[in-house]
Amino acid sequence: MESTQDIRKKFGRFRILVVGRANAGKTTLLQRICNTTQRPDIFDREGKKVDLAFHATVQGTVNRGYHNIENELVFRSNRDFVFHDSCGFESGGEDEFTKMKKFVLDRASTTKLKERIHAIWQAATSVRL
Question: Are 84 and 18 a contacting pair, CB within 8 Å?
């Protein structure tokens, strides 16, 4: 039987896709898991850091935040995890769901274990009565 360290060497960091509605608290959940209040560093698929200031000013996405499901979110407090944000599923929003489905299927079919999604978490909001 392989040790935990041997298994970790095979796939590197644990890769998690987080899905849920916009403003469901996905980033807050990830911050709690990684024991931080800081924003994650964001990298594109080639490992280059994403310039959020560019996307906020040029693409006008400052209000909802810039999300690309392909980008990797990594918290400095816990670099053992790589997160992908689904952007948020809005009521009747077929585009977000289609992008997420394609992303999952592409990652599931890759032969590179380090690029596969190892878990999918769903963030759901609750109503207090």
Answer: yes
